[in-house]
Amino acid sequence: MCGIIGYIGKEKSLPILIDGLKALEYRGYDSAGVAIFSNGKIQVKKSVGQVKILEKALKNDIDLVSHLGIGHTRWATHGMPSETNAHPHSDCQNRIFVVHNGIIENYRELKEYLKNRKHIFISDTDTEIVPHLIEDFLKSNHDFNIALLDALKMIKGAYAFAIIDSKNPNTLYAVKFSSPLVIGIGKGDNFLASDPSALVGKTKDIIYLKDGEIAEITKDNINVINFEKQKTSPEIMRLEWDLEQAQKGNYAHFMLKEIFEGPEIVLSALRGRLKTKENLVKLGGLEQVADKLKKIKRLSILACGTSYYASLVGEYLFEEIAKIPTEVHFASEFRYREEPFEKETVAIAISQSGETADTLAAIRKAKEHGLLTLGIVNTVGSTIARETDAGVYNHAGPEIGVASTKAFISQLTILTLMAVYLSKSNGHSSNNALFQELEKIPEKIKTILDKCSQMEALAEKYKKYENFLFLGRKYNYPIALEGALKLKEVSYIHAEGCSAGEMKHGPIAMISEKFPTMAIVSQNSVLEKMFSNLEEIKARKGPIFAIATEGDKEITTLADDVFFVPKTIELLEPFLTVVPLQLFAYYVGTKRGFDVDKPRNLAKSVTVE
Ligand code: G6P
After folding, report:
1. Nearest to residue 234, comparing CAs of 257, 254, 206, 259?
2. Ordered alpha helix ranges (H), 499-600
3. Over the Cα atoms of the chain, what is R_g?
């Protein structure tokens, strides 16, 4: 998705903007651009492709004295990737420059209106109407703020704008409606970004703008008003991420670094929450709604992508541990369906970014129907975190890899804790075995990571295939779905996740010597059933690669290749079976020659519908 960066202050703006655009690269984009105020006018540069191309094009300008600027990475929606369509966009006079995230739904209508008023458009974008609309209102009213407010009244859709005006060299304008925008508070300077990770290393004090807010930012001051022109008092939050977490370190890719963070991620999600001696889970973020949670009759989990697959594991956990009927919805489906709502249903939104548009809309719908809403969110202060009634933070640090890995591990941890927290057995010794095993998970993940070279060699063997079936049962069914998603995302191999029991109702038709199966075959209550499925595949000459439990001898007679993982209790198996699949996707993707940190067509944070 698109990224926004803005700067005003004592430093030279261009290097800061370029740095910010590089920090936003992971979100996915196809072109980039900047506009800076320098020598009494606004100068613009855009390029198609990576930020480094833009940086090269700007090499003679990098030292320009400029204390105000905006930048953007564009992920094409309206109009193909091109310099003309790249942001910033401006009005007929080249006075006002705008970068935009989101979608302006009524742009066709507004474009027609403005064309009839003699405005000339050069791009295919929806964004270009914004500077023209402000320009149009400035003709009848010379106050920029009033013209901006009048323009906003006409715009429908989701948007975050950063705007500069050549007649106001000391002001950076920011507008937010349904698309995230964060102000970073510096000393003698201020920053603007669509994603707080772009501010890591610059400042820790941030303001999340709320929907319908406009910020007028100078180097020493931030004035926030709402669309009704009333002054608001934004809350300053502390961003606890540090620079090291947002950098690759010695790893070739963020994806690999984040897979290797798995053990630490589990520990930081458990810290202060798992009280093994007391057999107790304590979740501070849920205390304020603890009484209401005692009355839960049903849970509805709302999520997208990898967070959705973690939710599917959560469904098994909540039902087995807490005995609460649970259903999981794709947020994009939930928001449009017409199901009857039962009282005492609690909705849980799961989101790494806390900004996914569909998940946000789904949680808003749940609230409209009077449901209590909880969040499992990684990004502190994000919109979903703020809009849910209560919740639990992942504390996983920034996740930069577009293909989510560490967030998934963290979500599994929080879901396990939450299932115990919501169960009647919280505080009883019956949890003893689960808690002790949970504490061993980081060490067990480590033993898997220590064998990464074995997975690398297997990836070399399997990288030639163009199709893959991923099979699992019970707790490992969602892991089969997640494993297939990871492979698709970074290697562009067609991969299909399937519940092993469903295989014979369709997917088995595809099996041949050219169509391998990745089977998750843990030593658990469904082991025999999995073996039967593998026999069926073998009978059809399908190559089998199994993720199996250490000590399982039988699997080697059925599978062509096996990667062993340590034994654990059934409900914690996903922690150990997903890691080899993350490694597999990573190695296959890189061996096929792809930059796995920048998968084609994908975005890290999907803030439009
Ligand atoms: C995008 C990302 C996925 C992520 C999904 C949900 O599609 O590429 O990695 O799982 O959004 O994101 P969320 O931030 O809500 O967990």
Report:
1. 206
2. 527-538, 555-558, 573-591
3. 25
H or E element in which residue 57 lies:
helix 51-57
Tell me the average pLDDT across 75-89. Answer: 91
Residue to probe by mutation, ligand 1, list 29, 179, 195, 356, most atoms within 8 Å of CB? 356
For 105, half-sphere exposure in the C-beta direction (CA atoms, 13 angstrom radius) is 7
Q: Is the CB of 18 under 6 A from ligand 1?
A: no
Rounded distance between C-alpha atoms, residue 7 and residue 520, angstroms: 49
Expressed in angstroms and rounded, the spacing between residue 353 Cα and the centre of ligand 1 is 7
Residue 608 predicted with pLDDT over 90: no
3-state secondary structure of 494: strand
Q: Please say whether the beta carbons of 14 and 62 come within 8 A.
A: yes
Of 396, 495, 455, 448, nearest to 590 by C-alpha is 455
Catalytic residues: 2, 604
Residue 103: HSE in the Cβ half-sphere, 13 Å Cα cutoff:
14
CA of 307 to the centre of ligand 1 (A): 7
- The rounded distance, in Å, linking the Cα atoms of 33 and 482 is 35
**What are the b/e assignments for 240-272, b being 16+ CB within 10 Å?**
ebeeebbeeeeeebbbbbbbbbbbbbbebbbee
Query: How many residues does this entry show for the chain?
Result: 609
pLDDT grade for 599, boundaries at 50, 70 and 90: confident
Find the 356 Cα to ligand 1 centroid distance in Å: 7
Residue 63 burial by Cβ neighbours in a 10 Å radius (0-12, 13-18, 19+): exposed
Q: What does the DSSP assignment read for 342-394?
A: PTTEEEEEEESSS--HHHHHHHHHHHHTT-EEEEEESSTT-HHHHHSSEEEE-
HSE, side-chain direction, 13 A CA sphere, residue 184:
25
d(CA 311, CA 414): 11
Confidence of residue 372 (pLDDT cuts 50, 70, 90): very high
Q: Any idea which residue has 């150990």 for tokens?
A: 576
> Residue 598 has which token pair?
């920048």
240 token code pair: 């606890």
Cβ of 274 less than 6 Å from ligand 1: no
Whether ligand 1 lies within 6 angstroms of the CB of 351 is answered as yes
Q: Among residues 18, 64, 11, which one has the least CA distance to residue 37?
A: 64
